[in-house]
Write a structure and sequence with these properties.
Blueprint (H helix, E strand, L loop, with lengths): L6 H10 L5 E5 L2 E8 L11 E10 L2 H20 L10 H8 L4 H16 L3 H15 L8 H8 L7 H17 L12 H7 L6 H10 L3 H13 L9 E3 L7 E3 L7 E3 L4 H6 L15 H14 L6 H15 L4 H8 L3 H28 L1
Antiparallel strand pairs: 1-2, 2-3, 4-5, 5-6
Helix pairs in contact: 1-2, 4-5, 5-7, 6-7, 8-15, 10-13, 13-15, 14-15
InterPro entries: DNA_brk_join_enz (IPR011010), Integrase-like_cat_sf (IPR013762)
GO molecular function, one term: DNA binding
Protein name: Integrase
């Protein structure tokens, strides 16, 4: 009795023979599906389910050919002798031969990143927005030259350039490549902050008074009083007991505690009476955008982050709180704090020296 030549019959015979390969119809063509070793240039490390295109039509003659090819491929896989180069097209071979040396490095870096940082919504967002975008700039050989090229591929003296260089430096260190990319960072952090006016305490109070929505007035207040990032205001709680500290439950840099500056703001505004705006979002960036949009709609003369900057400067220059302590309250490093607010710290120091000198003469 002649064998049936149908896709179902072919796969039944392959399964009965324990070939480990099946024939699939994709469009009007046939392909094989099995657990293959990684294709050259894929960046994958382990065998996984893949299709091998045969390029033959899904007709009776094609099915017979595909069945025979499945048996050959199954034998090669079983013996550990399967070689993709036998099946890749000329174009695919050209692509695989030109695959960047950075691909396996980037894959291992990604695996290490999530293994150490954890796989959360926040870490996935950071990976996508910072690391992934930076690593897309890497191509060719894994050399210092390609890192230099990638580091200079973004606009100078911008936040994007600064963050891109930081991620590329981390990748270089992971790959064991000795290189210093810091000169590419530019002057974004300090120069951009110097370029705009930080609101005075008086202006901060005045603006709060004109906000009629109680929920937004509360959010504005906690940002001003505790130096919160815009999204952190949605994930915090304020203690009703003196000193009315604010616990940030989660956010860009995780959990921390911040203290009110000025303390009377926390008391006068009763910030422990939480009234959060009715906003939703999937990411911290979504929440931050909600705040920015509100400031824009109200035509406020400064942006949300200026409240945070004002808090930092107030704490360091008016209250003389040590930089390491202020950095902890704000959820960043002392180095970042000093670099960002050096201008105001220097001005306060010079003023103090001046008045001490004058008083000594009196």
């Amino acid at each position: 009795m002649p064998q049936r030549i149908t896709l179902e019959a072919v796969n039944e015979r392959l399964k009965a023979a324990r070939i480990g390969v099946r024939v699939d119809k994709r469009g009007d063509r046939l392909s094989l599906r099995a657990t293959f070793p990684p294709k050259p240039g894929s960046g994958k490390q382990k065998p996984h389910q893949q299709h091998l295109s045969l390029g033959i039509y899904a007709n009776p003659a094609g099915l017979q050919q595909a069945e025979a090819e499945a048996k050959v491929v199954g034998g090669l896989l079983a013996a550990g002798r399967f070689d993709w180069n036998r099946y890749l097209t000329v174009e695919e071979k050209a692509v695989s031969s030109s695959v960047s040396e950075w691909e396996p490095i980037k894959l291992k870096f990604e695996q290490n990143y999530f293994a150490t940082k954890g796989d959360t919504a926040a870490t996935r967002l950071t990976w996508k927005n910072d690391y992934e975008s930076a690593f897309k700039l890497l191509s060719g050989d894994a050399t210092p030259e390609s890192l230099h090229t990638a580091a200079s591929a973004t606009q100078a003296n911008t936040r994007t350039r600064k963050r891109t260089v930081e991620k590329l430096q981390a990748c270089a260190q992971f790959a064991g490549i000795e290189i210093d990319l810091s000169p590419y960072k530019g002057e974004y952090g300090r120069s951009s902050l110097k370029a705009r006016e930080i609101p005075s305490d008086e202006l901060i109070v005045e603006v709060r008074e004109i906000l009629q929505n109680p929920a937004w007035q509360w959010l504005y207040g906690v940002m001003a009083c505790y130096g919160l990032r815009d999204h952190e205001a949605f994930f915090c709680e304020v203690s009703p007991v003196s000193p009315h500290s604010c616990r940030i439950l989660h956010g860009k840099t995780g959990e921390r505690v911040a203290y009110p500056l000025h303390p009377q703001w926390a008391i006068e505004w009763e910030l422990w009476q939480i009234q959060k705006p009715n906003c939703s979002g999937k990411t911290y960036r979504d929440y931050g955008q909600r705040v920015s949009h509100y400031f824009n709609r109200r035509n406020l003369s400064f942006c949300p982050y200026d409240l945070r900057h004002a808090y930092a400067i107030r704490g360091t220059t008016q209250y003389k709180i040590p930089i390491p302590t202020m950095a902890v309250w704000m959820g960043h490093s002392p180095v970042v704090h000093l670099q960002t607010y050096q201008r105001w710290i220097d001005a306060a120091t010079h003023e103090k020296v001046f008045f001490e000198a004058i008083n000594n003469l009196i």
